[in-house]
Amino acid sequence: MALNILFEDDTLQVVDKPAGLDVKELERLLEPKAKPAHRLDKDTSGVLVVAKNEDALRFLQTQFQERKVHKTYHCLVEGELKNEKGTITTLLGRSPGDRRKQKAFLPREPGSENKREAVTHYEVNERFKGYTFLEVHPETGRKHQIRAHLSHLGHPIAGDKLYGFKNQKVPKGLTRQFLHASALKILLPNGNEATFVSPLPKELKEVLKQQKAL
């Protein structure tokens, strides 16, 4: 599989990751020393930054850890959100009921001990019958954060088989979770700040087009 490279220099590559490619498969397609500086779930597409050496990896990972990277995602969620924008703040950790999943905990809730803070900002881009199209900015970078948070909010991502509710309906033609990493703003090792953008994939655009036609 040939990767779509959005940007490349001596220290890093920016990959437009397709859905269906997990991190281990991705690493096999990269140069031997290249390592992703952050993670995207297998069925999430979009901007992924890959470091070419250890110095660049540490430099980039530090920015993610210190919440200095501005990340933009787009997703279609089930149901119609009441608010035009909002912030979801919880603790996040492995679900005791299903070890494949992350669970949102409130402070002092039983089981919340040693769980890590997760903060997700969202705003409504477009409303459809039975669905809402969101722009999402995760402030932290916890595993499955956006998926777990939106499910916690009562509006799981369309097509998400792990975090979706029982008997959740799926838009026609959608074969994976509707979650796309659209843009990422970060400081490069050379000192320049850059924003990398991945347009919404064709198959997700088609799903939105169908919703508009309803």
Description of the structure:
This protein has helices at residues 23-29, 54-65, 145-152, 202-213, and strands at residues 4-8, 12-17, 35-36, 45-51, 70-78, 85-94, 102-105, 116-128, 131-138, 179-187, 193-197. By secondary structure, the chain is α+β, with helices and mostly antiparallel strands. The chain has a single domain, classed as Pseudouridine synthase (2-Layer Sandwich). Strands 1, 2, 3, 4, 5, 6, 7, 8, 9, 10 and 11 form an 11-stranded mixed β-sheet that branches. A hairpin with a 2-residue loop joins strand 8 and strand 9 (131-138). The longest helix has 12 residues, at 54-65.
- Helix/strand-derived class? alpha+beta
What's the CATH topology name? Pseudouridine synthase
Which parts are unreliable, with pLDDT below 50 for 5 consecutive residues or more?
none
Largest sheet: 11 strands, mixed
N- to C-terminal separation? 36 Å
> How many domains make up the coordinates?
1
Order of helices and strands: EEHEEHEEEEEHEEH
The number of helices is 4
Mean pLDDT: 94
